[in-house]
Specification:
- The protein is an alpha+beta fold and about 450 residues long.
- It has 2 domains: about 270 residues, Zn peptidases (Aminopeptidase); about 170 residues, Alpha-Beta Plaits, CATH 3.30.70.360.
- About 30% of the residues lie in helices and about 25% in strands.
- The strands form 7 sheets. It has a 6-stranded mixed beta sheet, sandwiched between helices. It has a 4-stranded antiparallel beta sheet with strand order 17-18-10-19, covered by helices on one side.
- β15 and β16 form a beta hairpin.
- The longest helix is centred in the last third of the chain and has 19 residues.
- It is elongated and about 75 Å long.
- The termini are close together.
């Protein structure tokens, strides 16, 4: 069965790549809601396209009010195997890319585009794996349900709505992490801190998403800038100085892999305004990526150290500084504990506003789900690896009995949420073969 199905998968690989290219060409950054498209028309159009491709494969489909949708291969029994991924993406700045982020271009054996790894590529690979199994005559006992979400990057309203209409699958995996298997995910706590006022004539702006390390930060100052610039540049015109710092994007769960442009700017401002409590607080407390400067540096043996990303900075019309922080905390702690810890280490007149708190995930390594997926990976790759713990948050935490399975292979370059996100075409085929085997083993 599997030999036949894998040959069909290989024979259809060019078609898989073409469908993925078409999917990438939809700019599925979150946009203004319109009728039937709660996260923007482009995301709805992309969902419609993927469901239409699924229909052409002979799968039944369901569109859940534009929030999410699914395509499924009916099983003979009552249980459901869920495969949960997303079509929305984080924003891209075209000027930072070597190739167009929504061009779906192939260069040197790699397909470039936002979503190639997170998460359009893996979901299209799963779709074609199901198609290959179906064409090979596979009749699963569990219904195989591919669930396409549309708001994973901005709060996961998609799955909240979808699972208010549809039951949870009995067992699931999400192709939205790392191989071999992620069975532990740190808790996620994003929050805004409404700080005090900045000095007269000072304004700071950076970032668009809390879960992305900002690569650009600018500040305007009435007057001159003194002292060390920490790699930033300063220009002056009509008595106004503009500080510009550039860095490197990275996923908010791995802030040390990027260069946070806000750090240089706040160091400069803190040195120039030593009496301003807001600037001193940010510069002295919020710039450490492990939370140590803020005394929130938690750690446990199972999932490691807390990580922290200063992701979004805005200045209100009244001159108040508002920052948005993304914290990934170890699985031994709770969101409530994290909030109390943050408040206890923050000036009392600052307002801490919780946003999208998400409890940690843990599925035991000896469970049927984790052990089956680990065996599939280690057998195929001739390895003896163990399950992983990560700081990233996947859809796995949105439903019971679910873990992340791929798509990033050990040692492979991490381009998720970064400029020039891409998938190696050989890796795309290999992940599709692993997903085929996983679907077969879990649904047979």
């Amino acid at each position: 069965m599997n030999i036949k199905a894998k040959q069909i998968l290989k024979d259809n690989f060019n078609n898989m790549v073409e469908v993925l290219q078409n999917t990438i060409r939809y700019n599925t950054e979150k946009a203004t809601a319109v009728s039937g498209a709660p996260f923007g028309q482009n995301i709805r159009d992309c969902l419609d396209y993927v469901l239409d491709v699924s229909k052409q494969m002979g799968l039944s489909t369901y569109n859940c009010d534009g929030y999410a949708g699914h395509a499924q291969l009916q099983g003979t029994g009552e249980e459901v195997l869920g495969i949960l991924g997303h079509l929305d993406v984080v924003p891209s700045k075209a000027e930072e890319w070597q190739y167009p982020p929504y061009g779906g271009e192939i260069h040197n054996g790699k397909l470039f585009g936002r979503g190639t790894m997170d998460d359009k590529g893996p979901m299209i690979a799963c779709l074609f794996a199901v198609d290959a199994l179906k064409k090979a005559g596979f009749e699963p006992s569990k219904t195989v349900r591919l669930i396409f979400g549309c708001d994973e990057e901005s709060g996961m309203q998609c799955v909240t709505h979808y699972f208010s209409k549809m039951p949870f699958p009995n067992i699931s995996f999400s192709p939205d992490g790392d191989f071999p298997v992620i069975n532990r995910e740190k808790g996620i706590f994003q929050f805004r801190v409404h700080c005090g006022k900045l000095p007269q004539g000072v304004a700071v702006t950076a970032g668009d998403r809390a879960n992305v390390v900002p690569s650009l930060c600018t500040a305007t100052v009435a007057g001159d800038i003194q002292g060390q610039l920490y790699g930033a540049t300063v220009s002056s015109k009509d008595g106004i100085s503009t500080i510009t710092a550039t860095g490197k994007n990275a996923h908010g769960s791995t802030p040390d892999e990027g260069i946070n442009a806000t750090h240089a700017v706040f160091k400069i401002l803190a040195n120039n305004y030593p009496q301003n409590e807001t600037l001193q607080f940010v510069a002295n407390k919020l710039l450490s990526t492990d939370g140590s400067a803020w005394d929130v540096n938690l750690c446990d043996e199972q999932s490691g150290k807390l990580t922290m990303n200063l992701g979004v900075v805005r200045t209100t019309a009244e001159g108040q500084l508002v920052v948005t922080i993304d914290i990934r905390f170890p699985i031994s702690f709770t969101c409530e504990y994290m909030l109390d810890l943050i408040k206890s280490n923050t000036p009392s007149y600052f307002v801490v506003e919780a946003s999208h708190p998400s409890a940690p995930l843990y599925v035991p390594a000896d469970s049927q789900l984790v052990s089956t997926l680990m065996n599939i990976y280690n057998t195929a790759m001739n390895t003896n690896l163990e399950p992983l713990a990560i700081g990233g948050g996947t859809y796995s935490r949105c439903l019971p009995n679910c873990v992340a399975f791929g798509p990033l292979f050990p040692g492979e370059e991490q381009t998720i949420h970064m400029p020039n996100e891409c998938v190696d075409l050989n890796s795309l085929l290999l992940m599709a073969e692993l997903y085929l085997e996983a679907i077969y083993q879990l649904a047979k």
